[in-house]
């Protein structure tokens, strides 16, 4: 049946009496079979990454779903544009904010974007029960999960890196020291990668537990903000009480302060911690590295496990 | 060639045996898998696709072992779930293209195949509109299209007529028939109604409580003549529409009869001649300006066969036969196996009866 794929099969062309039926006549358009390549799992996974990534910016969806991502992206890049304009106009010899601090500084906006994008990526498939259509294809469940993780990581990275690129371009235009700027820019990108991967795993895990998109958005916002405010307040309290050593350890307790401390320790930035001092790379900083890696791995593992249970 | 083979296949969930040492052999063509709700039909499909491990036993699909080669099987098989599975905010075209790419088709091939497949399932006009606005029948067609888009060798259709009205059900069944006859794709289609699959299938497998009850071929059926039941509206010009159509069809050279009610029963020969008769009926009615209330094909029913042979399964009641049947227009010329082909064309009431639960 599939040996001569370029022929046109139709009711009339199939004279095998018993099967050629009258009802075939109604839409009698010849069927063309497919003989081209079947690219298998890796192609499916790559297509899913592309599809999900586009969806994270509202591309390929209705105009309405483009509004929020684009608005947030604009808000995200606005300060960078202002800084560049100011730096050039006033002939500063360095940018008002370090590259590594930019994402930390804009965390509320990034958090909002993550809270919107993660449920968009997984809740809808659960809500409309589309997952069985994925799992009945060559993809394995782990392919689905890794594709979603990759897509959201890239989306968050792009969201964070775009203003950094603007800052860098502006800095070079304003004739700031190219070597200093390049180092700072690369450190900023590295920080954005770590930030993106951690937040992707965390937010997808949360979103995967509810088919209701609104709940997902609220839950991600809650997980990103509540611990952050708690940890920051606690840091100030212990700092005021004089035990500044505890500040670093408390910073491990929320994703926001974790990222702040991490970039402070390893990417040469200052922090928003009460002291403004970063954890030492060899000391408390090590804990930041371990917790960052461990939390990302744990969330990814739990996400994989979650999808082992999603029925078809 | 066998398409699906299972051997002692079992699936036990805590407290429930969904499949119980099922051994069955399914060849090319359209196979109806019939069983009451909870009989294990959907479970069997999951195991065949390699999506859940069997508790014991083996299954092979297209020669590959479900337990180890699931991914390779799924590349060559299409699956239509029984439940809703479509996102409402996406147009059918985009959704099906995406699914084609998930099956491994390159982008341009995915687009071409999607356009073709949507046209074949009869969705060409609506394809750019979001799926959320579709009727149940249209959604079922999108679900079927995504199962066919990568030109599989086999499709597994889980209760494709669920939620459809009688007309929609007939259209879906005709479409399923074409999947095999025109597209050359083998079909395993499930239903909890025995009656509806016997007209569509070459082979029927009945399961109950996870156990095989029967596996029977419906050979010989399709060689007999088919009866087409036509009901039309009346119009000012034709106050008795049925009688007018009867006369017009007779004049056109077809064998047509009136039944006791409002139906005109047209006898169609098998093959191309019968196909032409189909068109004649449709065109004649259109030319007369009458509305077509229904036009349905009546094949002979296998219910009787099962009623006789399946002692363990209280299958659908047999269509009433004999003197009480008001009209008996069909006289099959020579069924291949007279024992299997009852000569009666059942009345609508009998059809309803035959649609009863298989268990
Ligand atoms: N994931 C599951 N966990 C527990 N029991 C299940 C599961 N899936 C199906 N069953 C049970 O297995 C039996 C067969 O179910 P199913 O295959 O869905 O039947 P059908 O499709 O014929 O209606 C039912 O009793 C059902 O409750
Ligand atoms: Mg079922």
Characterise the protein shown here.
The complex is a heterodimer of chains A (312) and B (359). By secondary structure, chain A is mainly α. Chain A has one domain. Helix content of chain A is 68%, strand content 1%. Chain A has eleven helices and two strands. In chain A, strands 1-2 form a two-stranded antiparallel ribbon. Chain B is α/β, with parallel strands linked by helices. Chain B folds into two domains: 218 residues, 3-Layer(aba) Sandwich (Rossmann fold), CATH 3.40.50.300; 75 residues, Reverse transcriptase/Diguanylate cyclase domain (Alpha-Beta Plaits), CATH 3.30.70.270. Chain B is 32% helix and 23% strand. A six-stranded mixed sheet of chain B has the order 6-7-8-3-9-10, sandwiched between helices. Chain B has a four-stranded antiparallel sheet with strand order 2-1-4-5, covered by helices on one side. The longest helix of chain B is centred in the middle third of the chain and has 16 residues. The two termini of chain B are 31 Å apart. The interface between A and B is large, with 54 and 63 residues. The complex binds adenosine-5'-diphosphate and magnesium ion.
């Amino acid at each position: 049946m599939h040996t001569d794929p370029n022929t046109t099969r139709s009711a009339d062309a199939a004279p095998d009496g018993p099967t050629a039926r009258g009802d075939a006549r109604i839409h009698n358009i010849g069927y063309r079979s497919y003989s081209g390549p079947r690219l298998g799992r890796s192609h499916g996974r790559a297509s899913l990454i592309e599809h999900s990534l586009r969806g994270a910016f509202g591309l390929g969806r209705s105009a309405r779903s483009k509004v929020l991502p684009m608005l947030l992206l604009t808000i995200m890049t606005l300060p960078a544009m202002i800084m560049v304009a100011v730096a050039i106009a006033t002939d500063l010899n360095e940018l008002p904010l370090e590259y590594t601090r930019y994402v930390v500084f804009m965390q509320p906006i990034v958090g909002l974007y993550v809270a919107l994008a993660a449920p968009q990526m997984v809740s809808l498939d659960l809500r409309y029960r589309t997952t069985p259509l994925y799992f009945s294809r060559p993809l394995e469940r782990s392919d689905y999960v890794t594709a979603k993780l990759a897509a959201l990581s890239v989306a968050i990275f792009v969201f964070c890196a775009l203003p950094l690129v603007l800052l860098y371009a502006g800095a070079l235009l304003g004739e700031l020291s190219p070597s200093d700027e390049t180092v700072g820019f690369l450190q900023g990108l590295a920080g954005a990668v770590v930030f993106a991967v951690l937040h992707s795993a965390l937010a997808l895990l949360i979103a995967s537990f509810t088919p209701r998109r609104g709940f997902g958005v609220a839950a991600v916002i809650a997980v990103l903000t509540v611990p952050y405010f708690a940890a920051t307040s606690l840091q100030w309290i212990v700092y005021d009480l004089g035990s500044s050593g505890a500040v670093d350890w408390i910073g491990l307790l929320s994703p926001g302060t974790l990222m702040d401390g991490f970039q402070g320790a390893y990417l040469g930035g200052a922090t928003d911690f009460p002291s403004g001092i970063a954890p030492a790379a060899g000391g408390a900083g090590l804990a930041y590295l371990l917790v960052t890696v461990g939390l990302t791995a744990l969330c990814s593992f739990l996400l994989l496990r979650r999808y082992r249970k999603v029925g078809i | 060639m066998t398409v699906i083979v299972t051997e002692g296949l079992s699936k036990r969930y805590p407290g429930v045996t969904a499949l119980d040492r099922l051994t069955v052999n399914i060849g090319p063509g359209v196979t109806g898998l019939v069983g009451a709700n909870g009989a294990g039909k959907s479970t069997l499909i999951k195991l065949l696709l390699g999506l859940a491990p069997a508790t014991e036993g083996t299954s092979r699909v297209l020669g590959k072992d479900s337990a180890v080669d699931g991914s390779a099987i799924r590349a060559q098989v299409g699956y239509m779930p029984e439940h809703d599975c479509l996102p409402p905010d996406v147009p059918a075209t985009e959704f099906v293209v995406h699914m084609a790419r998930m099956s491994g088709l390159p982008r341009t091939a995915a687009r071409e195949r999607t356009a073709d497949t949507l046209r074949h399932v009869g969705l060409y006009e609506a394809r750019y509109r979001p799926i959320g606005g579709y009727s149940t029948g249209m959604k079922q067609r999108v679900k079927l299209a995504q199962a066919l888009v990568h030109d599989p060798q086999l499709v597994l259709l889980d209760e494709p007529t669920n939620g459809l009205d009688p007309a929609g059900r007939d259209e879906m069944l005709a479409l399923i028939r074409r999947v095999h006859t025109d597209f050359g794709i083998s079909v395993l289609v499930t239903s909890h109604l025995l009656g509806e699959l016997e007209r569509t299938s070459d082979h029927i497998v009945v399961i109950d409580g996870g156990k095989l009850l029967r596996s029977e071929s419906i050979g010989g059926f399709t060689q007999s003549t088919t009866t087409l039941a036509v009901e039309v509206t009346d119009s000012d010009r034709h106050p008795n529409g049925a009688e007018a159509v009867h006369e017009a069809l007779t004049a056109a050279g077809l064998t047509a009869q009136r039944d006791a009610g409002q139906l005109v029963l047209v006898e169609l020969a098998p093959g191309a001649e019968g196909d032409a008769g189909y068109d004649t009926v449709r065109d004649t009615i259109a030319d007369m300006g009458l509305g077509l209330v229904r036009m349905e094909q009546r094949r002979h029913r296998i219910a009787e066969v099962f009623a006789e042979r399946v002692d363990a399964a209280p299958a659908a009641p047999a269509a009433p036969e004999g003197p009480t049947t008001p009209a008996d227009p069909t006289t099959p010329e020579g069924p291949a196996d007279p024992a299997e082909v009852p000569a009666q064309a059942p009345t609508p009431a009998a059809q309803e009866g035959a649609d009863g639960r298989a268990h």
